[in-house]
Design brief:
With about 120 residues, chain A is mainly α. Chain A has three helices and no strands. Chain B is about 65% helix and about 10% strand. Classes of the chains: A mainly alpha (about 120), B mainly alpha (about 190).
Chain lengths: ~120, ~190
């Protein structure tokens, strides 16, 4: 019975995480310009990765039994999230700064009234 | 964009604070406490990533961690923050859950926008400019990273004096800036 509950929790976390990945990909396609497309891309990094990785960490922790090897593996998976949370904003900032320095003007509603 | 504004931007960008903290550092000599802390952090990382506890691998770990700690202990822990370290980590432990909750809220907001049929009229991409009260450069970097980490807002540029330019996807994301996040990330660094 316990294993069943764990399967549901892990499966739910993975499913919601992958749903955020899908939403991020759809957002990248749907949003109008370079700058606004970076927002759903950040969504993939923050929510999708957090949920799917915590699902995987829980799975490793409980599937292998509570031994040292599975704890270490879960810690490694948790560290993926920590390092991505440090590097992902830096990368996003580098991309948006490159766009600004190249002189690409952001899409605004005022300049695109025909889009209605 | 002309060449002069480009040069201005690069000096006012994120490169300078790092340079400044190096200039303020005292002359290079090994300080024992930062060295020990750096060694312990590196060694725990080594143990987590290697997962092997036989003498051979542990010896390799000790040797490489000693070299890395010798080379970089003054980068990880600078002289000015040594006394504040417990406060810093304590503050960060309180800050991170709150930041995580803000990230969840912002994610749900952007998720709604992505799937909204009338998305193109709902969004209103805009640049927000404001001046931050924060002085500490690490506090500014933490604040800028937190802004970028929450979907819907991305830090475009940040000067040494705290002038922020933030790209926001719609009015709901833009209006709370600088908001709670500024004071909370400042509080970690004792401001």
């Amino acid at each position: 019975m316990e294993i069943d509950i764990m399967t549901i929790i892990v499966g739910g976390l993975l499913a919601i995480g992958l749903f955020f990945f899908l939403a991020g990909a759809i957002g990248i396609i749907r949003f109008p310009d370079f700058y606004s497309r970076l927002h759903p891309a950040g969504m993939i990094d923050s929510m999708g990765l957090l949920l799917s990785m915590s699902g995987l960490a829980l799975f490793t922790l409980f599937d292998g039994g509570l031994c040292l090897a599975s704890v270490l593996n879960s810690l490694k998976i948790a560290l993926i999230v920590v390092f991505v949370y440090i590097t992902s904003p830096t990368a996003t900032h580098a991309i948006i700064d490159a766009g600004m320095r190249a002189g690409l003007k952001p899409w605004t509603k005022k300049r695109n009234p025909q889009s209605k | 964009m002309t060449l002069t504004t480009r040069a201005d931007k690069s000096t006012a960008g994120m490169v300078k604070p790092l340079h400044d903290s190096r200039e303020n550092a005292p002359e290079r000599r090994l300080r024992p406490i930062p060295f020990i802390i750096t060694f312990l952090v590196m060694m725990s990382m080594w143990v987590i990533f290697s997962g092997k506890f036989d003498p051979f691998h542990l010896t390799l770990g000790v040797i490489s961690c000693l070299i890395v700690a010798y080379l970089s202990s003054d980068l990880l822990i600078t002289a000015t923050t040594l006394r504040k370290i417990p406060l810093l980590w304590g503050g960060f432990l309180f800050y991170f859950p709150w930041l995580l909750w803000q990230i969840v809220l912002a994610n749900i907001h952007v998720l709604k926008l992505v799937f909204h049929p009338d998305m193109i009229n709902r969004i209103n991409p805009q640049m927000v400019h404001f001046k931050s009260k924060l002085k500490n450069d690490m506090a500014l970097v933490t604040f800028a990273n937190s802004i970028t980490l929450t979907p819907g807002t991305i830090t475009v540029s940040l000067s040494l004096y705290g002038d922020f330019s933030v790209h926001a996807i719609d009015d709901a994301s833009a209006s709370p800036l600088p908001g709670d996040m500024e004071s909370k990330s400042g509080r970690i660094f004792g401001e």
